[in-house]
Amino acid sequence: MAKIIVSRDGVVEQQIQLSKESMSVGRHRHNDIVLNHPAVSGQHALITTILDDSFLEDLHSTNGTFVNGHRIGKHFLQHKDLIKLAKYQIEFLADGIRPLAAAQAASRPAATVSPPAEGPPARIEVLNGSNMGKQLTLLKTLTSLGRPGVQVVVIARAAGGYTISHVEGLAAPLLNGTPLGRAAQRLLPDDVIDLGGTLMAFRLP
């Protein structure tokens, strides 16, 4: 699985595997990754890992989150990206192994974890507004929906089916009327997603 290497003043302090779908970064001790420096906010940033992809999100920190020298709000992490938080430099290393594979390996053969779902792809149908009736076929392994900087979800297509995760924005989208968390949730036929007031149904062939 992907990992990060945390350095300060050129000295490596931590090497951390991104073993969870959501890992918080900050000064407070309850974070998954604790960076003990006064210039780091209590809850500074969040790393969300979905299948092969990791996203870094700044949680409205005081001093900002920087990737490769640029201040970011939300960033899709690439291999060897350099993240800077206060006095810390964090190198992101991707190895292309799905974090879900380790958790499921005990109960499933690895071959059933990594390939995309077989058969015709599912689709998203818009239920209201000016785009009512329009459909989006979920052809890609990862499909993002929403408005960057406001509210974004990612639908992941894998051998076990489809999952949805909230990856950007403070306000949680709704799944069947219930706030959607950062951890991936399984999508079932005719589930309704409420994304900023736009209602969309998940349809299987």
TrEMBL record:
Q: Which domain of life is it from?
A: Bacteria
The record places domain FHA at 23-72
Q: Which InterPro entries match?
A: Cell_Proc_Reg/RNA_Proc (IPR050923), FHA_dom (IPR000253), SMAD_FHA_dom_sf (IPR008984)
The entry's protein name is FHA domain-containing protein
